[in-house]
Amino acid sequence: MALLKVTNVSKVFGGLKAVSDFDVAIEKGELVGLIGPNGAGKTTAFNLLTGVYEPTTGEIEFDGKSMIGLKPYQITQRGMARTFQNIRLFAELSVLDNVKIAYHFHVKYGILEAVFRMGRYHKEEAELEAKAIALLKIFKLDDKKDEIAKNLPYGEQRRLEIARALAAQPKLLLLDEPAAGMNPQETQELMKMIKWIRQEFDLTILLIEHDMSLVMNVCERIYVLEYGSIIAQGIPEEIKNNPRVIEAYLGEEVE
Amino acid sequence: MEFTFTQQLIQQLINGISLGSIYALIALGYTMVYGIIKLINFAHGDIYMVGAYVAFFATTVLKLSFFPALLMAMVVAAIIGVVIERLAYRPLRYAPRIAVLITAIGVSLLLEYGGILLVSPQPRTFPAIFRADVYTFGNIVVNSQQILILGVALTLMVILTYVVQRTKIGKAMRAVSFDTDAAKLMGIDVDRIISITFAIGSALAAAAGMLVGVYYNSIDPLMGIMPGLKAFVAAVLGGIGVIPGAMVGGILMGIVEALVSGFISSTFRDAAAFAILIIILLFKPSGLLGKNVREKV
Amino acid sequence: MGNNKQVWQSLLACVAVYAVLQSLITLDIIGPFWQLNIVLVCINIILAVSLNLINGFTGQFSIGHAGFMAVGAYVGAVLTVKLQLPFLVAICGGAAAAGFLGFMIGLPTLRLDGDYLAIATLGLGEIIRITILNIPYVGGASGFMGIPRYTNFTWVFFLTVFTVVFIRNFINSTHGRACISVRENQIAAEAMGVDTTKYKVMAFTMGAAFAGVAGTLFAHYFYIAHPASFTFMKSFDILTIVVLGGLGSISGSITAAVLLTFLSAALAGYPEWRMIIYSLMLIILMIYRPQGLFGNKELSLKMFGRLMGGNKRGTTEGN
Questions:
Q1: Could you give the number of structural domains in chain C?
Q2: Chain C window 236-295: which residues touch B at a Cβ cutoff of 8 Å?
Q3: Do both A234 and A118 map to the same domain?
Q4: ipTM of this predicted complex?
Q5: Which helix (H) or strand (E) holds C116?
Q6: C280 to chain B: nearest residue by CA?
Q7: Is residue C318 part of a domain?
Q8: Which of A4, B103, C154, C168 is the most exposed place for a label (fewest CB within 10 A)?
Q9: Distance from CA of A85 to the nearest CA of C (A)
Q10: Model pTM?
Q11: Which whole-number Å values give the CA distances from C191 to A51, C196, C274, in the listed order?
Q12: Which residues pair with residue B125 across a beta bridge?
């Protein structure tokens, strides 16, 4: 059974059909890419999957259950986490706090325990801190754990976004243009990291990207979106040579 | 003669339209400023008060007649509005909205209490510079001053609509409120346009202030607080940022308030305004004529 | 854990401060003027810290706090005067009533943002006040008179300490972090699994409840509760304290409450000058130092001695 099954989803804003006939199926463990020219509706698709928008038609099934009508935080709690195209870190908070917040919904102690510092408070806070630091270590951000997030260099901010999303312990990770603004070397490292975290955290990954080298080298399967509809899907080789895709991307170099 | 329900209704409608014209004039300033820089100018109601006092000064000390005094009040208020924008709001053009809101509250308090210190908290009596003829139709009373209020308000609104829709400056104002950055790129002097917006809004509020002084005969430094809040509700009701909305909202607010005052109780007239605010914000925050704008994720 | 040692030291410090001040009061070394102002300082600290929870830590711009204070004052007064119940019941009742109202109001209005929320809370504060004005049972426009003076330094001191500790401990927990994440970036917070509506309403309810406590204390010190004490001017007063101290700093709220209470006392004969100074303060702060005195940092014992080792959020000693 597919981990994520999207059937016939469309989203209409007023007179504008942002997404239509959106059909996607992703099996557990896959690393799938979503590409398309600017304005094709990729981020809208992500927003539909994560509950930011509600689909006008269609069904979204995650882990066997319908996600329609659920709020974003509920969808995240059921195992789908995301990063954002324009970094949305908690800018004034420390790196460590950014990650701790993503662990929040796994914490069990209540308000009274927090206020009166009793019960599970101390134990869970210690666990939380340890887990957060361990996660930061993996992303080589642990030495900066007390830095204010907005003071990090751009590449590290993007890494932090991914680390934070992983702290939510998702089954499916949605990455929205993770390589945006990165130079070729950083992109290489990112590619290695994406493959590695898929393995290490037992993840399924869906990513939006413009950087073709990353997509072709990392994704096992690719969906291509144009004007809100899927025009092609298949393995990188097939997509590379698909005339429809080339036409949509006219002028764009595909290596 | 017995005051029938219909007669009471018509009377309150007349009162309401008159009152509503005042709210509409003030509401226009709120909506124009919000439309252009997304600021709720808390101090706007106090500009209305300043206008009333300038008119008072013009008529008592300078012995001007109605229309010259009105002009003077409008011009002085426009200048003050521009000065406030330059000194208090412009430095915060790119600050978080909360910061500007707090500053606006500060400016409002400054005008009110500065006013008290300057002109004493005692209410002043406005000289009778416009004859109050009373026309009666059966049990229904219409005051010539009410007609004046409606007349002046309508004239100003028509002029404003013409300026906004048919002149180059109006086009620039609409451009800036639609997309400030794009307007800048088109060569529009955004700072100047914002100043002009404040000037126009303040002038309209001042006109309202003078009209109120003429009609109710009494002005005091804190007179702007309630009408300011109610006019803001009117702007939200009509659709904040939408100029015709301010006019519609203002008239509606006036009518509702008159009806509540006439049929329920006058102690609840203020609460009625806030109740309308809450209802609108809960059910249609973009107002009657407004459009919903989504935040891009 | 080093934590327990810190807790006992703080507790000891509080009791010591209390003992010193209380004896000074009993011995009449601290006269009525200072007693009055100490009580006012404490009430203002409760008001400021509770408003800071909503505005500073959770980023929801609420300017109707006086309404909740009014509810606490009146409900508390009804409980002691009309129902002859003990003071503790009045305080709990005032808190519960204000908190409940905060919850009912918060639920529908907290989906509004920024400016709209501010105006809605302002309007609601006024609606509360106007409603009270029209209830003859509690005195209506003449106010509720004959409230016994149950509030004394002991009550006020320990309730203030309780408020500060409660809110500080809440903030330094996962629930507090959830609130702060709402302030920082609501969309990201939702995406990280935080039920932002729940936490906004939670902060609002708690803030309202503590404002209710302050209201009950206030009414039982001044013998009378009058709607005119709870206008939006009062809300602005509290807002000024929070802004001066720093949105997001408990130490800031405490410090500013002390400063502004005494400033108000000094200017008691010149109310217009007081308002002008307040208004200039708001304007100048926003333009030149929007973070106020402490920004979102806390006074840390680290500043006085490395031995304490404080964590980043430091420790604030309730006084």
A1: 1
A2: 236, 239, 243, 272-273, 275-276, 278-283, 286-287, 290
A3: no
A4: 0.90
A5: helix C114-133
A6: B106
A7: no
A8: C154
A9: 12
A10: 0.89
A11: 9, 10, 45
A12: B218
